[in-house]
Amino acid sequence: MADTCGQVLLGSGLTVLSHPLMYIKVLVQVGHEPLPPSIGRNLFGRQVYQLPGLFAYAKHIIKIDGKAGLFNGLAPRLCAGTIGTLVHSRVLQVGLANKLVSGTSQKAEEGSLQHVVNETTKEMIARSCATIVTHPFHVITLRCMVQFIGRETKYSGVFDSIVTVYKNEGVLGFFAGLIPRLLGDVLSLWICNMLAHLVNTYAIDDSMSHTGEIKNCSQAVTGFFASMLTYPFVLVSNLMAVNNCGLAGGLPPYASIYPTWVDCWRHLSLEGNMSRGNSLFFRKLPVGKTYATDQKRFF
């Protein structure tokens, strides 16, 4: 219990610190570009036209809503983080994941491929349960953020937002964008753990000094690589969570009305926008797009 409380406190602190970054990333993912392109320098020092980066975007938000504006949607995100940590820990503690895995596989030696598969399956079950339970708070978080575009106040608090979603969309509204989010989480977990196992088994010699630190580093690197590969699922999930919800950021011209997340994926793929919002530094202009000053977006 003490470990779980410590995880909740640590997670809440990291959530508060990282919230402005997520807020800006979500607005960029939706396609909101309030500042026109400007001349800057790329990594090689050459002058190029760039889109405003993280700090310029943050200054724009502060200018309109003050510093507190950078934390729109923080309350439901904290709820999601806290509940998710508790559910994840509880699923592992009660042995639900162990029972499901033990029923389909045999015990394996630590470090073997079968052991990695078993542990990854347990973690997948725990994460999926936490994601499903907390997704309604994730949807509310995103909608609180996207309100910045149209200056709406439709989602003003956790409880009021729950009522708003239920009245307008019913129970299904709480789970908008859930499927691509689950797929992305599962794929990212498996890619990360399988790559880390390959690296630790075939590229790292156990006789080397600091083997533990090296393996931890390889886990971090493969995790970053996996998150890059599965980023389109994150983008599609976030867009579907705000699509056609009555906010300007989820309606034309910012977004088409997508019947399913697959339609959203296809549309983004055709337009070459599958990586939109992936980087908040050295942001290049979209190829073949024109900036609309009045709409504050590219088309």
TrEMBL record:
Its main location: mitochondrion. It comes from Oncorhynchus tshawytscha (Chinook salmon). Belongs to the mitochondrial carrier (TC 2.A.29) family. GO terms for biological process: positive regulation of apoptotic process. Solcar repeats lie at residues 114-202. Pfam families: Mito_carr. One of its GO terms (cellular component) is mitochondrial outer membrane. This is Mitochondrial carrier homolog 2.
